[in-house]
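re the bet — no i am not wrong, look at it urself. input seq straight from the record:
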Amino acid sequence: MNNLIETLNSLLAAWGKPDIPLPDFSGITWLPTAGIIFSVILGFIYCFLGYKAMRFVTTLVGFALGLSIGYVVAQVAHLTSPLDIIVPIAGGIVFALLGFFLYRIGIFFAVFLAVFGITVSLLKEYTRLDETVVLIVALVVGVILAILSVVYLRPLVIVSTAISGGMILANEIYENLVHVRWSADLETMIRLGTGLLLALIGMIYQFRTTRGEEEE
């Protein structure tokens, strides 16, 4: 949720609008560890089980998206307790149901958010583009691939989820488990290479294990 709000704040800053405050989770000591575990599990699912688990992923992404939108609405509308909690949770449940039952719409948002996040990370890491330009490019790339994934369901879903999952896993590996001690540039290259290798393995595995399956 914080990533979505940070992105929205970047766009608002470009337009001279005030920030939406991020939720404060500093008092929850176990949250960082839980976040790492969740990211690793989600990365593994995306990379190796993306097509098979897509309905689960669309439901999960729908809940996260609805929760984020509900939080933004609650902040913009200056809602007070208990509405400031009820609205985000209700938004999460509604969008989770939409992601589960409206399969292709769920796929659109799942692929869009994954591709958008990876594109932003890569552009910030390997280019010196202005942040607004990075966000616009990421939005365009995300929308294009999300539309293609809905039209050409199986191949595009497999490719996009494998790349997204591989990059998520590589990021978690080198952020929390392995630290390259030579130089930042070398670590970046190794991280990118690891992500692409995992993505390739994930694509091969998904194409082999979903061969002949009917597209929903």
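see?? Residues 68 and 168 are 20 Å apart (CA to CA). told u. also The two ends are 29 Å apart (CA to CA). so pay up
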